[in-house]
Design a protein that fits this description.
Largest interface: A-B, 41 and 47 residues
Low-confidence stretches of chain B: 95-119
Strand order of the largest sheet of chain A: 1-2
CATH superfamily of the largest domain in chain B: Winged helix-like DNA-binding domain superfamily/Winged helix DNA-binding domain
Strand content of chain B: under 5%
Order of helices and strands of chain A: HHHHHHHHHHEE
Number of helices of chain B: 10
Strand content of chain A: under 5%
Mean pLDDT of chain B: 82
CATH architecture of the largest domain in chain B: Orthogonal Bundle
Order of helices and strands of chain B: HHHHHHHHHH
Helix content of chain B: over 70%
Radius of gyration of chain B: 19 Å
CATH class of the largest domain in chain B: Mainly Alpha
Number of helices of chain A: 10
Low-confidence stretches of chain A: 1-5, 84-99
Radius of gyration of chain A: 52 Å
Mean pLDDT of chain A: 72
Largest sheet of chain A: 2 strands, antiparallel
Oligomer: heterodimer
Helix content of chain A: 55-70%
Distance between the termini of chain B: 41 Å
């Protein structure tokens, strides 16, 4: 029993404080405790504050949880609606019936029990969002590939039909391969024929070094562009005309006033394609 | 507080896949867990979300419960407390234990809680006044540091004994008592300051 009358034992006061408030101290202990609380300037107010704090907290009443809380918890854990669960649990069995659940029901019950944790996890919003995105991506991919659900409905799944489809598809692939091979053979023959008929082609390597040099040019200077008069290329028609008569330049005519300079008019007819 | 055998049987049924047993557990403990979460987190929305998280965690780890190591309610409360502490760390809530007015008066124009109470029309009904007092105490509780808050919640609001609280908080009983005393005293100081200004 600590000596609570001495100031050095104030730190023991804290340990007995809770017990004193709980009323588990013996009468002797309580007397000494209260005597110290009266005399000690630090422990007395502390006791009053602790007691007041406890009274404040005892005045707090329990709050009512939201009505949907239980359903939300069950939905997020088992994925089962509690209302349906209650109906199943409280469903009365017919009197005298000894027929137990069928093997199918037992299998379903076992599967639902095994899948409950998985299903509960899957039903969380983040997973639901992931599945939504996956479904969206799949539907977009199918629509891009041209697969329609309506087509799938007409697909016959009989073994004979599946075999028939398989052989059809195989024959189509073989036919396509043979056609492609024939086309390539014809192309190669034509190329060989051209090579034998045409004279030796000019050396195609002449311009290659230029291109190579240009590629290796790291001076970052822009290439010299070839100046072209695009109006004179292509299918443009250019007509030039010089008027005859007085306006023609006469070298014998010395009168500068009557001497007109030669005029050449150029008319361009562009063909807009 | 709870019949150990009945609860152990309930847990075994639940682990075996009995959905009705799980529903019974939810119905039995949702109120207690919600109240702990509400008093610790401070808001009803957070409390609802946290309660759901507690039950999800409990559902996943129910197989690890050992009835020989302690009562089920202690195990449940430990899960709740751990999750609340995690939530507190994630949200980085203020750990300031200053008075309500001191916190509010950080801004010059902020109106202290005492003035907020004073400005409201005097409650004619005692029930309204009691509710307001409850809200003030709840707000003051939210200002305590989490260590003190969880100790006083478990002791004064959930009526746990010191041994159970020591198990949940994983600290010695002496530390539990010390935290409870400090929490109560701090709460009293906060409320005393608030109501002194009201009067």
């Amino acid at each position: 029993m600590p000596d609570l009358t001495s100031n050095g034992m104030c730190h023991e006061f804290d340990g007995l404080l809770a017990d004193a408030l709980d009323g588990v101290l013996s009468s002797l202990q309580l007397d000494r405790f209260q005597a110290h609380a009266r005399t000690c300037s630090g422990c007395g107010p502390l006791f009053a504050e602790v007691e007041a704090g406890r009274n404040w907290l005892k005045g707090l009443t329990e709050v009512e949880p939201p009505a949907s809380l239980v359903n939300n918890i069950l939905a997020s854990t088992t994925g089962v609606d509690s209302q349906r669960l209650r109906v199943n649990v409280s469903a009365p069995q017919p009197r005298g019936s000894k027929v137990g659940p069928s093997w199918l029901e037992q299998a379903q019950a076992w599967a639902s029990g095994a899948m409950q944790p998985v299903w509960g996890t899957v039903r969380q919003p983040r997973f639901a969002m992931s599945f939504g995105m996956a479904f969206f991506a799949l539907s977009v991919a199918l629509s891009v590939l041209g697969v329609k659900p309506a087509d799938l409905r007409e697909v016959s799944l009989r073994p004979a039909a599946i075999r028939h489809t398989f052989y059809n598809t195989q024959a189509r692939v073989v036919r396509y391969y043979e056609n492609i091979r024939f086309v390539y053979e014809v192309e190669s023959r034509v190329r060989e024929l051209k090579r034998t008929i045409e004279p030796a082609a000019p050396r195609s390597g002449e311009s290659a070094p230029d291109k190579k040099d240009r590629k290796n040019d790291t001076t970052q200077q822009p290439e010299q562009k070839q100046e072209r008069n695009y109006s004179q290329t292509g299918n443009n028609l250019i007509l030039a005309s010089a008027p005859l008569g007085p306006s023609v330049f006469d070298p014998l005519n010395q009168d500068p006033l009557n001497q007109d300079p030669p005029v050449v008019s150029v008319t361009t007819y562009r063909r807009f394609v | 507080m709870e019949d150990v055998q009945v609860v152990a049987m309930l847990v075994r049924r639940c682990v075996a896949g009995d959905a009705a047993a799980w529903e019974e557990i939810v119905l039995t403990y949702n109120r207690r867990i919600y109240n702990i979460c509400y008093r610790f987190a401070g808001s009803a929305d957070n409390a609802e979300d946290l309660t759901q998280e507690v039950f999800i965690k409990m559902y996943r780890t129910l197989g690890s419960y050992d009835s020989s190591k302690g009562a089920f309610v202690t195990w449940v409360t430990t899960i709740t407390r751990n999750l609340l502490v995690d939530h507190f760390r994630k949200t980085k809530q203020d750990r300031i234990t200053d008075s309500l007015d001191a916190t509010s008066s950080a801004h010059e124009d902020a109106q202290p809680l005492s003035e907020q109470i004073q400005d409201q029309s005097a409650p004619p009904d005692a029930r309204v006044r009691s509710r307001e007092v409850g809200e003030t105490v709840h707000a003051a509780l939210a200002k305590l540091s989490p260590e003190l808050r969880e100790a006083v919640i478990l002791r004064d609001l959930q009526d746990f004994d010191y041994k159970e609280i020591a198990t949940v908080l994983k600290v010695p009983e002496g530390t539990v008592k010390s935290r409870i005393n400090r929490g109560r005293a701090e709460l009293a100081r906060l409320l005393q300051r608030t109501y002194r200004q009201v009067m």
